[in-house]
Amino acid sequence: MTLVRTPSADLLLLVIGFIVWSIAFIALYAVNAIGCEFGWNQRFQRTVLVGLFVVHALFLAWFARQNYRYLLAADAEPRKMIAYTGFGLTVAALGSMIFVLAPSLFITMCI
């Protein structure tokens, strides 16, 4: 058995999906709170929220695609495992973002 070194940058594949998810979570709820506090027009506020949601979702979909390409190109076993896990975690982050943040796009803006 030979030891194959994996660059530490490969480990970022494991966490970037949920980092983007957390940024989207904070951004959407912060913009919603700011819009409510400053009395933004509901249509404008909803447009900004949808824009933030779509941008983050598109980034996660793109990143999942990149992870899948990296998985197909990986040659050594540790890299394949990291790429496979990174792909799964990115897809999980995208699903979690849709499940958690999508209701904020159509429920009542300010209470």
What is the structure about, briefly put?
Helices cover 72% and strands 0% of the residues.
Secondary structure elements and pairings:
Elements: H1 16-38, H2 42-73, H3 77-101
Multimerization status? single chain
Q: Distance between termini?
A: 62 Å
| Beta-strand content estimate | under 5%
Residue-averaged pLDDT: 87
Low-confidence spans: none
Order of helices and strands: HHH
Shape: elongated
Structural class of the helix and strand makeup? Answer: mainly alpha
Number of domains: 1
Account of the protein in words:
- This protein is mostly helical.
- It has one domain (11-105).
- It has helices at residues 16-38, 42-73, 77-101.
- Helix 1 runs parallel beside helix 3 and helix 2 (42-73) packs antiparallel against helix 3.
- The mean pLDDT is 87.
Key structural traits:
111 residues, mainly alpha, elongated
